[in-house]
Automatic annotation (TrEMBL):
It comes from Pseudoxanthomonas wuyuanensis. It holds the Pfam family Aminotran_1_2. Residues 45-386 form the Aminotransferase class I/classII large domain. Transmembrane segments: none annotated. Its cofactor is pyridoxal 5'-phosphate. The lineage of its organism: Bacteria, Pseudomonadati, Pseudomonadota, Gammaproteobacteria, Lysobacterales. This is Valine-pyruvate aminotransferase apoenzyme. The keyword Transferase applies. Homodimer. The keyword Repressor does not apply. SUPFAM superfamilies: PLP-dependent transferases (SSF53383). InterPro entries: Aminotransferase_I/II_large (IPR004839), Class-I_PLP-dep_aminotransf (IPR050859), PyrdxlP-dep_Trfase (IPR015424), PyrdxlP-dep_Trfase_major (IPR015421), PyrdxlP-dep_Trfase_small (IPR015422).
Amino acid sequence: MAMTVKFTLSKRAQALTSSAIREILKVTERPEVISFAGGLPSPATFPVQRMREATDKVFDEAPHAALQYGPTEGYTPLREWIAARHSKNGVTIRPSQVLITTGSQQGLDLLGKVLIDEGSKVLVETPSYLGALQAFSLFQPQFVPMRTDEQGIVTEALTAEQLQGGRFMYCLPNFQNPTGRRMPLDRRQALVQRVTEAGVLVVEDDPYGELSYHGEQLPSLLSMNPDNVVYMGSFSKVLAPGLRLGYLIAPEELHGKLVQAKQAADLHTPSFSQRIVYEALQGGFLDRHIPEIRTLYAHQCELMLSALERHFPAEARWNRPAGGMFIWVTLPEGIDTGALLAQAIEQNVAFVPGAPFFAADPQVNTLRLSFVTVPAEKIEQGMEKLGVLVKAAVAA
Ligand code: PMP
């Protein structure tokens, strides 16, 4: 006789839900679907040969160390490389501030673990990265949504009440997921000053900063006040996401706590992938590789913008990103992009509705398009189909 095992879920787990959108998007894995939904980097950018050579080198030179347990903080030479790369604009980052994480997604979880109690105030952009909202939600914070415009967080609109007692402010200054927006220099300076004065820690999530199409990069929030900013970086968008390699740069007192939380979570990030990536980075590889990614993405972005102009109705609005992977589209009020997605999938094309990216008061007439995952020739085809549906929805 089969036995039923009884278990009681934690309150935390009871609150977990699988989003309806995720369920719908599962079908986008079918090969016939042209999906602008996923945040997947273009596989054409993965440096396969370079990774193969780096792996061979690791096996030739340090096979046992690469297959052994390692320190929780991460592989020291990789931490030194990261600290050196971020030591610019007059700021010195020490390797002791760097913690290698299993993807920057783990960094979000660790920050939630060490900074959020039930009901703690966490300030987030409107909209913000869905994966961060999910990671933080496990610790049951009270999200405080911050007003944004085309240039990101509207610093002047932040009230003392919003900032009061905030555990941290989660910011995406470069080519934000989901909107593709970038915060200009004066906004960054004003924001860091305001938030530091208010005694609120800044968390800067920056997986897309290097993907500035025209090459110019704005100073990080980290560089403006390393004592009050936790910076999150990732190799997912500049090498490959399957490596699961990211990092946190944190003030030393907080770093120690994050290390303890990471030790409890997974002891350390795989020694193997850390050593391979370290080898792959040698000789300035990223400085040759990243421009290739930028060129490809800038081209695909142009294709999508041109398709939007030709196929979408005049009532739709969107931004022209200067980097990253996403375009944010706002349709007229009254259109629900969740319903539109169901129709789109019937036509074998997909996008992500905007609503889940809002911590509160979702704008259901918004959607996110990724222009990097689908190869160039499919962008036009998919956008044409989507345009027909959007026009019909606007006319209805
Ligand atoms: N932050 C943002 C803003 C992201 O878009 C992503 C990936 N989509 C992550 C963090 C997580 O990246 P990873 O874990 O691959 O480093």
